[in-house]
Fold these 3 entries.
Entry 1:
Amino acid sequence: MNRRMVVQGLLAGFAIATLGNWLPAAYAADEAPDAMIKRLSDEVLAAIKADPSIQAGDTNKVIALVDSKIMPNVNFQRMTAAAVGPAWRQATPEQQKRLQDEFKVLLVRTYSGALAQVNDQSISLKPLRASPSDPEVVVRTEIRGRGDPIQLDYRLEKTPGQGAGWKIYNLNVLGVWLVETYRSQFAQEINARGVDGLIASLSERNKSNAKKG
Amino acid sequence: MTRLTENTRARLAGFVACCAVLLLQACASGPQANPRDPLEPFNRKMMEFNEGVDAVALKPAATVYRKVVPPLVRTGVANFFSNLGDAWSAINSALQLKLHDATDNIFRFNINTFFGLGGVLDIASELNIERHKEDFGQTIGRWGVPAGPYLVLPLLGPSTLRDTFVLPVERRGDILANVDPWGAQGGLYVLRAVDIRSNLLRAGEVLDQAALDKYSFTRDAHLQRRRAEIFDSNDADSSGQEPKLETEPDPKTDSALGPAPVGENAPADAPATTATAPSR
């Protein structure tokens, strides 16, 4: 009896000690998803407002901003895989990498124009409807500026492991989900010309966009 | 409509007949057809036609309009037409039993009409009274009428079978179609079209850059947007889970990242139009 209590006490003490060590770190990493989106949006808006060359539509600057601020918080592999659909599994790692790269350039380039229009907008969060244990949540925001507010929602997943936080894997503008909008276009291309065909037409599109911009 | 001459009527009839023929041809579409878009060949042709009209008439007019008319006046014009729309939105919110939205829309219409110089000034927005756009297609969609196949209409663009059927009702609800202020109805129609198009010039550029296939991009975006408008993502899915389109990809994605099961390549795009009673 006595020995068991000692062992239990020891275990409890050990547990408290280790928890004590871990808890602060865990709290710091467990930023709520809506707080993260708010922080991210504010940072990006501030960066755009502070940099006239982004507002002038300098694509390289926009890509740098996206890479440094946004991409660390996006599961872009999941996003691309979902847009590509079943063919993703058959693609080689190189093909998957090229798909991700080209898709990213396409998105950044098309949205850099929108970023250039930022002036007096601000982001407001709508109430989050999720319980703390949910592994996936939708964060709803609104861009308020001139004219009607623009609905902008994010789908996030909790990354397993300590301190990895939340990652965005889909985006909704005015009720339209980004991944879904690309899915049938990608499927069409893959059905007609295979994964390499899709990569080719993505890179063609990027090249012709680069010429225009 | 009474102003149409016999000649125009005849041409219109011819045009409708052409559409019908195209439509019939389209019904025999290939096995790869998207279940939500059985009329794809017809729709693609219609989109080409619309883009042709847009390129020679509407887009140039809108571009000139944007260049020549000062922003303040353009905002006034846009406000004026939006205000007329608010009245119809109020009726449709009420028909959907969204009483709060209906009240907002009525207030908006009254305030802007009487204190905003007939709608030219959008005072209601300054007062933070939100606009809730609703039309009759949304109303019957809310009450369970499915969207039906995607349909591209001549001149009017992307639509669905449901939204096409309610066009006569929409026309009744259009204040411009019922009252003829200053005998300038035709001119006002044109102005409204140019105003709407001028606000989409930027969007058109983005679409040109973003889309691999402009047709599918427009279709998928339109169908999703209509759906979102009808179910106001705010209250339709309190769990944050998207109704149809979002629940599908997850297993696919997960398996895409994990070990590979047998490949199947039927895109499980169930018609986005199934059982849709008003949510709560």
Entry 2:
Amino acid sequence: MIPLSWYLIVSALLFSIGLYGVMARRNAVAILMAVELMLNAVNINLVAFWRYTAPDRAVGLAWAVFVLTVAAAEAAVGLALIISVYRRRDSVIAEELDTLRN
Amino acid sequence: MVEQIIFLIISAFTLTMAVIVVTKRNLFHAALALMAAFLGVAGLYVLLDAGFLAAAQLLVYIGAISILVIFAIMMTRRLMQTTEPAFNSQAGFALVTAVIGFGILFWVFYLFREIWPLIPDATVPLASKPELPQEVIRNSVVVMGQSFVDPAIYVLPFEIASVLLLAALVGAIIVAWPKAEDKA
């Protein structure tokens, strides 16, 4: 007896929390963690719509699996970039990475 | 009724952990809260009868991505213990933007309350989870697996995802490879 909109609202809340983290955090690893929260919120939406509107087809599940794959790739490359930046600049604070400014 | 209570408990847990992830100054604690939030999302998948995705969530997110994040935190640990502020100067604006963003989304749900009802009601479609025979639920993984290898459906995205994972693997190794001059 759970309405579809409850899942959508939880997902919207999770997305907003992740959005706040991405915009407000200074540490690059923390920003990446907030991005993972936002990807999870998207996945909740996909699975909820699948279950409520098209449970006999694979479309929602398959898309959620693709999002999962891309999230894994994104986390691996993102953390490698952060570690590389840390080696060169001795910092993982996003504001201090301003080589391209000016 | 029981399902609603379970849903509310899991959602409250997930959202609390998500708030801890974005507010905790100690990044290691934030990463542990992130694992808990992923666990909560896996619980929501179970409520949505997506058992395979819940298992994949446990393996990929809690098993792999969280461990990667914790490794990254430990490798950059020297900076974690400084007394620097956790938030940048735009944190206030960020909070306002996030609240407005959620407000707009909620407003959309309110506008479409005829289609996506906010209160449970067995007679209205989408106001309660459609009852399905156990067979359909159990069959959904089979249908998904077949769609991944069916040339008419998802075989191309599936192969591209494999190539993407390979490229990410190689790219991560190349990017994080220590340069000779760094070792000095």
Entry 3:
Amino acid sequence: MMMPINKDTVGSSRFRSAANNVAVLAVCTAIILVQQIVLAGLPNIELVSLLVIVYAQTFRFKSLNIIYVFALMQGILYGFHIWWFSYLYVWTILALISIALRKVRSPLIWAVISGMYGLCFGALCAIPYIFIGGPAMAIAYWVSGIPFDFIHCVSNFILCLLLWKPLTKLTFKMFS
Amino acid sequence: MDNIPFQVIFYAVCSFEQAAFLLLASGFNAPLPAAGKFIFKGIGDQKSRYQSRPPEDRRRKDGFAMKKTSKNNTRNIIISIAALIVLAALFFTAYQLLRPRGAEGNKKIHFTVLVNNETIKSYDFRTDAEYLRQALEEENLIEGDEGTYGLWVTTVAGRKADSGKEEWWALYKNDKLSMTGVDDTPLEDNDSIEYRLTVGYDDAD
């Protein structure tokens, strides 16, 4: 239930906590969006996967707010094309995996998870094409992108191996 | 993308897995020093800091528990890396089996260029090329910019797409929008290739 904004509630810790949550999630969304725009020129090299993992571990299900605002902003920036529909579930899948495996503390295991996710990214994004052109179109889309999924896998693996640990420590320190 | 760079990518993946084993052996995989029981009541809430001392601290007092955890961690890492290698091998095999391949030998191709729904060029030619790019470049029909995803076609039959007006060339093969770029589109005898000048990035169908 939404908290009423009045003189009794504004000063309360519950209100401060809610306002804090909104501010923190907004900053995290801005970080994920800006890095995506900055790295857009590099094919299949992105920090979105890593940030989704870190956010999901830190904020649990609240990280879905970041993911869906990010997806909405992607649609507004680049247009609501077929690929956009895949953004409604691909990052959610990664977030749910990250929440389920949040007790894992090995950078190497997270690098492997991120690498596997990069490898499967094209297959996950091919799902909307089943409804547009049938399974043949979806398979053609997936197969034509496999070489780029390998690039995605390697880049995710390296970035996660190097940055998961410092980013996790930083977010826990800042937001926990 | 032809076979050689793709195999390089595949071998690179395997090399990174090997590097990962070396990192593991060098103790890179030490647990986070502050890792503990993460329970958050609210983001930024001071009360939500670690609710208990990190379990790793307690484990260090118990040599057996520490040893067992470390052993399990190593086992999990090996299993996860093996799973990644198996997945990569499956994808590599799927690509080799399912990727589109052009027919060998001489082929007849019907080529059409449409601008504003009017045909500005339509003719047949023969080629031995297995993929579209080579066939069209032999006939001097396309020009473009090299990109990471192959050739981005900007000019077809002398007509240049004006990116300032959001013009681009949509490639159709046998009346269907191609899922592959000009580099990866395979050719078969009697294929119909059509380039349509499309305005706006929402209009391809």
